[in-house]
Amino acid sequence: MASMRTLAAALSAAAIVLALFAGAAASRTKDNVTVTVDTLPIANGLPLDLGISKGFFDKQGITIKKVTFQSGNDIVLALSNNNGDVGYLGYVPMMIARTSGIPFTLVAASEVEGTSVDDNWQNILVKGSSSIRAPADLAGKTLALNALKGVGEVVVKAALKKVGVDPNSVKLLALPFPSMRSALSNGQVDAIWTPEPFLSQALSQDGARIVMAPGPVLGNFFPNGGYGALQSWVQKNPALAAKFRTAINESLTYAQQHPDEIRALLPAATRNVRLPIWTTTIDRAQLLTLAKDAKEFGVITSLPNFTQLFPSAIRSGTAEGLLEGSVDARTITLRSAGATAKRLDPGKYLVIIKDKSKKVSFTLKGPGVDKSTGVAQTGTVRWTVTLAPGRYTYSSSAGKRGSFKVS
Question: Which domains does the chain have, with CATH numbers?
Answer without folding.
Answer: 2-113+222-309 (3.40.190.10), 122-218 (3.40.190.10), 321-406 (2.60.40.420)
